[in-house]
Design brief:
five-stranded parallel sheet, DNA Cyclobutane Dipyrimidine Photolyase, subunit A, domain 3, 6% strand, 2 domains, mainly alpha, Serine Threonine Protein Phosphatase 5, Tetratricopeptide repeat, binds flavin-adenine dinucleotide, 19 helices
Length: 448
């Protein structure tokens, strides 16, 4: 009997080095290539003030268009459906007598829970999942997941010398789809934001999709920027001081194993140095947070994180709004937030500074800051975002407890001439942080 597979693309939006797609191509006679766009998935956390930004959606939209174009070369297409995965997959299973469902392993607790309940509800269907987003698969780790080291340094020492598998080529053929291609762009536009103008130079550099990601990867190593990465990586503005791999890595349109293989080729041709090692080092941070999210699941979103300590915070709506809009008494923070809002990107140094300010200067609940970044970052990645926020809030994998950055000192080090602050108008803010204080609160004294 002919078999039909359902391939659920998620954060593996590529054909290159996609072991799961190769497996599907070898196993079934027909294949539906599906992407479920969940309006609420993109902002499902209670702290998320809004839907994902127009820029983040634009990047995803471009990625899906590119994937669809690349699938056309195989006489295949991408079926984009707007709605909940938990509703769409069961419908397709029934309508098309699906025998196999494929989905890459996700770091997200919500996505994993959905997958687990689907498996439970359809015990007669083969559910296939693989680790396609990481350097190593779970079985290659030299420890059980619940034994994941509690700090990055210990993790790095365990895995640094392991061999990373060479990337696989795209499939040679794909089984045909039982479905006719349906127009989905207008559906997308009706369900999500109208795409806003892309008005900064930086944004234009982040074209979504596997094709653009591969071009960016080639350009990065051809221009030799990797030679000086370690010295330049703390920059605040521009395309060249760091790799800018993150947007494509986050939705899987670039494979991390492909990046590593290009890095190794570069080292063979041009020679390895501290900078090339440091790119690998940073990719190991990403790896660590992925397994950290897989281990700690829902704890990634709890106020106390993986600790027993609930941080003492309050919710000051005014402070939160000022931080989001870049209107705090801290010019460096304002510049970073304005850059984020305009471009969908912020440097690693900037992310550390704005998160430290959020937690330590404004005394806000770290989860609201993480949720705001989830909304705004083109490179939003559940594990890296929430893991880094926990780390900075002192409820995560930081052996030192918490990191408070001296914002004046940091400004002197990383923006000594104030060029970054001027460019993003970080020095323009309303004088007071709070317009009300405790004595202004409208509490009726007679009630006390
Ligand atoms: C508060 C906060 C939130 C963050 N949120 C995200 C997020 O949602 N998505 C995301 O991809 N990264 C996140 N990061 C990590 C880091 O800031 C970005 O990966 C990096 O700035 C992306 O730019 P790049 O590709 O040029 O990085 P590079 O400096 O060139 O690094 C190369 C790659 O290494 C990885 N990497 C580097 N630093 C880190 C790190 N600290 N943690 C995890 N991986 C790292 C990324 O995959 C990156 O693309 C966050 C960091 C902080 C402090």
């Amino acid at each position: 009997m002919a078999t039909t597979g359902l391939f659920c693309f998620s954060t593996d939006l590529r054909l290159d080095n996609n072991a799961l797609l190769l497996q599907a191509a070898a196993q079934v006679d027909k294949l539906i290539c599906l992407y479920c766009a969940e309006p609420t998935t993109l902002s499902h956390s209670r702290q998320a003030p809004n839907r994902p930004s127009a820029l983040r959606q634009q990047f995803l939209f471009e990625t899906l268009c590119d994937l669809n174009t690349n699938l056309h070369a195989y006489n295949q297409h991408l079926q984009v459906m707007v709605g909940s995965t938990a509703d769409i997959i069961p419908q397709l299973i029934t309508q098309h007598n699906i025998s196999h469902v494929y989905q890459s392993n996700s770091a997200g607790h919500y996505e994993r829970s959905q997958w687990d309940s689907l498996r439970k509800n359809y015990p007669y269907i083969e559910f296939v999942s693989l680790d396609t987003q990481t350097l190593f698969s779970q079985s290659e780790l030299p420890f059980a997941l619940d034994q994941l080291p509690d700090t990055f340094s210990k993790f790095r020492k365990h895995v640094e010398k392991l061999t990373v598998k060479a990337p696989l080529s795209p499939p040679q053929t794909l089984p045909p789809s039982p479905l006719k291609e349906r127009e989905w762009r207008s559906l997308w536009e009706a369900s999500f934001y109208a795409i806003s103008a892309r008005d900064t130079g930086l944004v234009a550099a982040f074209d979504g999709g596997e094709s653009a990601g591969r071009k960016h990867l080639d350009r990065y190593f051809k221009t030799g920027l990797a030679r000086t990465y370690k010295e330049t990586r703390n920059g605040l503005d521009g395309m060249d001081y760091s790799t800018k791999f993150s947007p494509w890595l986050a939705n899987g349109s670039l494979s991390v194993q492909r990046i590593l293989s290009e890095l190794r080729s570069y080292e063979q041709q041009a020679g390895a140095n501290d900078s090339t090692y440091w790119i690998y080092f940073e990719l190991l941070w990403r790896e660590y947070f992925h397994w950290y999210a897989r281990k700690h699941r829902a704890k990634l979103f709890r106020p106390e994180g993986i600790t027993q300590l609930k941080p003492k915070t309050a919710f000051y709506a005014e402070r939160f709004a000022k931080w989001c809009h870049g209107n705090t008494p801290y010019p460096i923070v304002n510049a970073c937030m304005k850059q984020l809002n305009a471009s969908g990107y912020m440097s690693n140094r900037g992310r550390q500074l704005v998160a430290s300010c959020f937690v330590h200067e404004l005394n806000l609940d770290w989860r609201f800051g993480a949720a705001y970044m989830e909304q705004q970052l083109i490179d939003y990645d559940v594990a890296s975002n929430w893991g880094n926020w926990q780390y900075l809030a002192g409820v995560g994998a930081d052996p030192r407890g918490h990191r408070r950055f001296d914002l004046e000192k940091q400004t002197a080090m990383y923006d000594p001439k104030g060029a970054f602050i001027r460019r993003w108008q970080g020095d323009k803010f309303t004088a007071a942080l709070d317009s009300v204080d405790a004595s202004d609160w409208p509490i009726d004294r007679k009630l006390n």
